[in-house]
Design goal:
By secondary structure, the protein is of the alpha/beta class. Helices cover about 35% and strands about 10% of the residues. It has helices at about 1-20, 45-65, 95-105, 110-115, 130, 155-160, 160-170, 175-185, 185-190, 190-195, 210-220, 235-255, 265-280, 295-305, 375-385, 390-400, 405-410, and strands spanning about 20-30, 85-90, 115-120, 125, 140, 290-295, 325-330, 345-355, 365, 375. The longest helix has 19 residues, at about 45-65. About 45% of the residues are buried. Belongs to the histidine acid phosphatase family. InterPro entries: His_Pase_clade-2 (IPR000560), His_PPase_superfam (IPR029033), Histidine_acid_phosphatase (IPR050645).
Length: about 475
């Protein structure tokens, strides 16, 4: 009897799902596997290419294909219509190539039938590479116009936001940082034989947690054990500890609940998400897919602002290569050429895949401390509005910048500047007014470039701990200045 009831409920929920229409999506995606940042220039590897291509195939099967599991309303299933896509990536080789590889999976070659054109003189021209589809990737520079950001250990300095840099650097003076620096001294010294060709006694510390993790992580993926010095030191426990320390280090640089400016990357990303999804609503799904590639630090900043660490501790860690978070515009109202849902009939679903979506489940999670994974569009906009920064004047004001691109803004900024570029939706407009992106462009990536100055070495005990329970003794604060790693 119970199994019969469960079957009935399952059928009922299937019918409910079938009534749902996806109006559009916004996907924020990390690059695929790459070479180590310790050896510039950093490049996308063949493995990374496969990862982003596989993710593109996954999203094609979910949203684009004629037999897609969750088709987007009005999307072209075979031949790409570039007017339906908005694709962006910073001026960075790894991120640009990752975007291009993803698009090859999203819209693969169409073959000779669809990829052949008949000219007026009767000549048939077949597109190269089996009907390979050309999709532009818009190159977006950060506020500081820094290119090839993936060559840097971490990127807050390249955000160009003075107050964000100051906030992140303040972490190096915190008691939490001092305790961890002290408690992990002996741990990092124990692995020095593995990385002595790149790091020294002075730089082999928690201060460079991510750079050390990145070097070893890449080595364990691409190098044989014979080519890794003292590889016997890299036990599973040691690798786990390296990642745990790097996770904690980077999350604290990307987000602090008492200093929202530290999460500048998440704030600017939030404004762009709302802006692009709003464009889909205003245009009645004429532009349905927005895709942006960016760095892991932007994920961490947004996770913190959206209260996702309350849902899972995993949202305080560095996401894997080719990870993606997706925002689906959904409705249960009737959608047709003559009928489009109003704001109060539209909702948002947030999903995240830690790693390429073709191998890791794309899972829905609740945002902003909500209980439901699908929330009303108006609620979503209101919550994002609490921390979104999407116009130049507000960005300059919040960052404390008054030179360069902010020089003219500083002279004319009024005291009534809003901390967000978004406004509340109105049912008559079908959306909200568009955010003005300004010169900060699509995404201001987060991080601060680690200083490699010497640290007084103190001997501390080593123990394997979780992300939330790293602890230790005290050391004297040192001067920290962001420099290229």
């Amino acid at each position: 009897m119970l199994s019969s009831r469960l079957l009935l409920l399952s059928s009922f929920f299937s019918l409910l799902q079938a009534d749902e229409t996806i109006l559009g999506v916004y996907i924020f995606h990390r690059h695929g596997d790459r070479t180590s940042k310790s050896f510039a220039p950093t490049t996308l590897t063949d493995l990374g290419y496969c990862q982003v291509y596989g993710s593109g195939e996954f999203y094609r099967n979910r949203y684009i294909d004629a037999n897609a599991s969750s088709p987007i309303y009005g999307i072209s299933s075979s031949v790409v219509k570039n007017s339906q896509l908005s694709v962006e990536a910073p001026v960075d080789t790894v991120l640009q190539n990752s975007a291009a590889g993803f698009l090859q999976g999203l819209y693969p070659p169409v073959g000779a039938t669809l990829g052949t054109q008949l000219l007026a003189n009767g000549t048939r021209v077949e597109a190269p590479l089996g009907g390979f589809q050309l999709i532009p990737v818009n190159a977006v520079a950060s506020a500081s116009s820094a290119a090839n950001s993936e060559n840097s250990a971490w990127l807050q300095g390249q955000s160009g936001c003075a107050n964000a840099i100051i906030s992140s650097n303040a972490y190096f003076y915190s008691q939490e940082y001092m305790n961890k620096l002290n408690s992990t001294m002996s741990f990092y010294q124990s692995i020095l034989p593995v990385i002595s060709g790149t790091f020294t006694n002075a730089t082999d510390t928690f201060k460079n947690a991510y750079s050390i993790y990145d070097l070893i992580h890449v080595s364990t993926i691409h190098n044989s054990s014979a080519s890794i010095p003292s590889d016997n030191l890299l036990t599973n426990e040691t690798l786990f500890q390296l990642q745990t320390l790097a996770d904690n280090h980077e999350f604290n640089l990307a987000f602090n609940s008492s200093e929202p400016i530290r999460a500048i990357a998440g704030s600017t990303l939030a404004a762009q998400i709302v802006q692009q999804l709003n464009s889909t609503i205003v245009g009645k799904s004429k532009s349905q897919v927005s895709l942006q590639f960016g760095a892991y630090a932007s994920f961490l900043s947004f996770f913190g602002l959206a209260q996702l660490p309350q849902v899972s501790e995993n949202f305080t860690g560095i996401c894997d290569y080719a990870s993606s978070m997706t925002f689906e515009l959904v409705t249960n109202a009737t959608v047709s050429n003559t009928s489009y849902p109003s704001n109060d009939q539209i909702s948002i679903r947030f999903l995240f895949s830690n790693g390429t979506a073709s191998e890791n489940p794309l899972t829905a999670y609740p945002l902003f401390g909500q209980n439901e994974t699908v929330i009303p569009w108006t609620t979503f906009v209101d919550e994002m509005d609490n921390f979104a920064i999407g116009d130049q004047a507000t960005w300059c004001s919040q960052c404390g910048n008054s030179t360069g691109v902010c020089a003219s803004t500083a002279a004319s900024t009024s005291s009534g500047s809003s901390a967000s570029s978004t406004s509340s939706p109105t049912s008559s407009s079908g959306g909200i007014s568009k955010a003005v992106a300004g010169v900060i462009g699509a995404m201001v990536t987060l991080a601060v470039i680690l200083g490699l100055e010497a640290i007084v070495m103190l001997i501390g005990g080593l123990r394997l701990v979780s992300k939330k329970r790293l602890s230790g003794g005290n050391v004297t604060p040192e001067t920290v200045a962001p420099v290229k790693a």
